Amino acid sequence: MNRNKMSVIGKQLSTNTFAARKPPPSTTQLRIVLLGKTGSGKSSTANSILGRKAFDSMVYSSSVTQHCRSVNGDVRGKHLVLVDTPGLLDTHQTLQDVQRELRRSVSLLYPGPHVFLLVIHIGRFTQEEKEAVRQFKQALGSKALHFTVVVFTHGDLLQKGTSVKECLIDRCKDLAELVDECGGRYCVFNNHNSKDKGQVHELLTIVDALMQSNEGSYYTSKVLQKAEEELVLELQEERRLQNEKEELEKKKQEAAIKEWYEGELEVVLQNTKREIEKLKKKRELEKQEDEKLVRQRVEAFKREIEENNRKEKEEREIQDMIRITEIRQEEEKKKEALQKKLDMVTKLLEEQAKQEEKSRRAMEEKMQKDRVENLMKEEALQKQLEKLIISLEEQRRKEEEEKKRMEDMLRNERVKNRRELDKHTENHRAEKRKTEALSNELKLIKMKMEKHKAHKESLKQQLEEILQCVRERYFKEISMLQKQCDKKCPEMCDQTDNMCSAKKHSVLTTVTGYAQAMGLVGLNAALGSIGVHICLQ
Description:
- By secondary structure, the protein is an alpha/beta fold.
- It has helices at residues 2-15, 42-50, 95-108, 127-140, 164-169, 173-181, 197-213, 221-314, 331-354, 360-427, 431-494, 501-518, 520-529, and strands at 29-36, 69-75, 78-84, 115-121, 148-153, 186-188.
- The model is unreliable at 1-27, 59-65 and 514-518 (pLDDT under 50).
């Protein structure tokens, strides 16, 4: 029997009858569907209408009714068919779920329901309640409100002497609009007082008036199908808007990725620039320290020379002279070596003052010994020079390695950026122009590095020119002293004719070396010590 009934219902739904079919005048059947959120009191309201417990009604967080269920009953001479629905208007239900259960409820009330009872709990009309009403209108269509009565449950919560219109409808604009769309049809149920038949009578009176206004028509599957078509159109529109939104999000993500890569490149360029600036500052500080050290050593050398000259003026007898070799080192190293020689000359002069009673032969042997010591000192100076050259070469090698490391780092960073850009070019063709921009930026960095290198070479060349000028000026001063000594030597040779040629040559050689370092005052004192009474002016 049930199988035959379902087949008849399916045939009737497939034919999609007209929307407002009129039943035979003699019918007393009234088909009702109860809709509402979970916990709104749909099942209790159905029990109150039927006057018996036909549906389970308990306070649970989840819906007691899991699927649509119909119950028959006779009230006031009318045969009622009530369909209780699960929480179709819950916010977690999808439109497809709501549509499926509504189709089931309509099939249970063939050929269609006369009225929908929209059950709402008395209290604050929350956002969830508004969303539930929106789902109801979206699923059934706007025409469904012509067949709807709003039922407020838990009427016991109203204060005595107040109506639901005063305390709820008039205070909520959205709820008032819903009641107006339903033709002002609403009633209040107190399901805790199921013996109160007045509320059931009031509801049936409102339903009778609704049926009269609709001329006895009912909500059919064709109306539901039209609502479904409208829903499909709305879903298509929502899908289109969603696709547009996703496309916009995709463009935003691409723009964000592009901006991120631009930021990363800017960070790399800034870091490279800071490294170059640090290296440049380091070179400047080293140059300033070197210049400061050179000035300090020059000043110390001058002070030592002045001190030695002052001491040499107090000396009356000098027994030995020391030959000073040409200085081929940088200015600060040569001056240090010369200072050492001057210290040794002072020491030798003091020793020679104590040994002035020794014979001339002993003096010649002493001078020969001093020459040997000078040669040894020259060799020591030569070794120091070689060490200095090695140190300079090591420093230059380190600078070249540092330069090479910077170039490798830039090259590696360039290769890394190139790979990253190539990878994203495959996914986003728009990144091709960015890759070319990055390549141009890297070329610009390379040009800046080459300019920095040229500037560094220019500074190095300027430093070498300055050192060469100082070296030439120093050699020029030595040459002038040597020329002055050469001019005085003939006069000394005329007054010492009785000396042997070998002795003259030795004395002149010693005098020449001494004149270069000590000056004319020391030379006159030295000549007096060996018995040559000549005063050089």
